Amino acid sequence: MNHGPLIFLGVFFTFASSWLALVFTPYVQLQHLTAAKSGETASSYPRPIAGLALVGQRVYSRDGCMYCHTQQVRPEGFGADFERGWGPRRTVARDYIYDRPVMLGTMRTGPDLANIGVRQPSVEWHHLHLYNPRITSPGSIMPSYAFLYRKQKIVGQPSDDALELPEEYAIEPGYEIVPTEEARALVAYLLRQDRTYPLPEAEQ
Amino acid sequence: MSDAVAATVEWTPEKRRAYFARERAGIDASTRLPVLTFFAASVFWLLVGTTLAIIASVKMHWPEFLESFSWLTFGRARSAHLDTMAYGWTAQVGLGVSLWLIARLARAPLRWPRLLVGAAGLWNAAVLAGAIGVLGGQMQSVEWLEFPPFVAPLLALAFVVIAMSALTTFGDRQEGHIYVSQWYLFGALFWFPWLYVVANVLILFQPVRGVLQASVNWWFAHNYLGLYLTPIGLASAYYLIPKVIGRPVYSYYLSIIGFWALAFFYNSAGIHHLIGGPMPAWLITYSIVASVMMLIPVGTVAINHHMTTVNHFRLVLYSPTLRFIVFGAMSYTAVSVQGALQSLRTVNEVSHFTHYTVAHAHLGVYAFFTMTMFGSLYYIVPRLTKWEWASARLIRLHFWMTAGGIMLYFLSLTWAGWYQGQMLNDANVPFMDIVKYTLPYLRTRSIAAVMLAVGHLVFAYLFVLNLLHRGEPRRDPTILGDVKEYRDMIGSEGAPQ
Amino acid sequence: MHAVYWVIYGTVILFGVTVVAAFVWAIRTHQFQKFQQGAVSIFDPDEPVGEMTDGFPGESGPPPEVLDCDQDELSKLDPPDPTVKGTSIRHE
After folding, report:
1. Tell me, what's the ipTM?
2. The Cytochrome c domain covers which part of the protein (chain A) (predicted)?
3. Based on the structure, what is the number of domains in chain A?
4. Min Cα–Cα distance to chain B from A102, Å
5. In 3-state terms, what secondary structure has residue C39?
6. Which end of chain B is more exposed for a tag (fewer CB within 10 A), N or C?
């Protein structure tokens, strides 16, 4: 065999077939998905990510939370996502139309976060946890994101959003730990993780 | 060369030998500068990637380790590890090996060596910028594409220049037959830029909607291994195994069937990474079918390499190249069969989202590809530097550290991952129990990483010694053709009639 | 949606026809004859079949009984013209 162009054609065709099947066809099928109303809900879901949560999405992406956390609930009977309380229904393509980038994740070193905003709505909890996961979850191997927090001297009254650290994690007296803008954004993003609304293709 | 000149030489068997030896040495020499540049840079990134790997691995069981440095937080260190290994080490060492193979198999000198060095410079600058970007907070959480977007056009440009040089050299070929390794290389050089550009455009520059990004992502990431690294690794194995033991491949038919089956099926397998995810069911099923069909090309390669080596297996004791490549080829069979099984829904229900997948990925990229590349470097580098490796003992140490390290890595994480998956699927097991269960295995993984690091340091040391021509001067048993010597013997006449 | 189905079926047919055509062409032009010869194209008089080309530095290679190539097996190969590399295939 000494026909270079022929090999090239074969190489091209095989590749084109996969491009057609895995890129082009799904594109035609899903590119035009929009938010939708289901049954009695007044507004369409999902809602666009905006404001502080958008900044938080960037932090989540930049610091690689995705490499330990998924954002997808598998269907009932496939794994134990329902039984673990990670969501009341499977997630579907429409749930992600506003995500950039989409961070479905492939690793569950930590729990799924597709609905963490519903499961854990407390801002204080999230700040403590992110500052040092061992405070809220002893034995956790999640990294501390203390670099998203600022240590500052208390002037007069402690700040409203200062973290209430338990004794063994207390810092020197006269100082307090407050979330930076990025930490607040990240928590806003986490609280927005709610994919429990009904969709036409995924009633509960 | 004119026939008249050639006719003046009387072609004794010795002169015939000398003629081919000289031709081969001359072609090898034409690749020296660019190929050694790629090798040196890739060895550098191998060490960087290894350091980052150890950091990320330790952080997983000891989260306080280096915790105050935001740029080394787990997510970033891990991704910088992956990207430096992917684009710094594997992609680049693969390019070096490809260029050398292309020139050799075409029996034509490599085209545009200086331009290639320029392209290597651009490639490495881009990888460096990308790695700094990832650590510095410009990371994109898109698996295998974490580099900040501006890096992509630079990498693509450098790659296209390199591929053009390879194709032009291929066009110059004197050898009448296109050997199966060239088919694979041809595929790899064409597939990678297409994949890379499409994936970057559709995910980072003009993002497609929602989960389409995920399917494009896995189409790319899986094909990076399947249509870029795998063909290069197989091309090298298909050339070097027969070459080292002095036996043609067992069945050339099988090798060609294997090529087309790989081209067709591997292409479509990627979406099995999203089983159970919010994707259309047909898409996932399509990928599962393709993944299972991968047993065909894998079977052909396995039979072929097995039958080629079967009566000569003991030669691995006498050849560093063979030893590494045979290890790689066996791992290829293992990883592919495992991959086909893993794509079945029942298996995937357990293995998905666990360390099992991480172990599988390392079996592919390390035990198969990286080991094959080590073997190739042991063959190629002395022929370019005209200098034998400094120490047989260090080569053996390198082999046992890396082979032992990756086996330890694979076994511990596979075990941990499987049980992690079982427990995740049993809602009665509290989540923290699973975290605690995996800890000993994660520590074992760190030990394995240190073993691998020792192996890499030994290899880097040998490589530098070789570049600097240190150690006792030795020419045997690696056959190092010397152009001048042969010229003295036969003058500069043309090909034997 | 209809357009997509046309594209899919269209390409399936196009690719299928191409494959069949390539196969017919390959048979017609005897691409499958002397196939195994291709496997020998990487050897030449200087690095012939039966010789090992790699070894540990400073060590003697394998003893003859290990390297021993069984001649029967080799003779089955139908090698190309032993003097000139590749050409016998090119001119076919």
Report:
1. 0.93
2. 51-194
3. 1
4. 6
5. helix
6. N
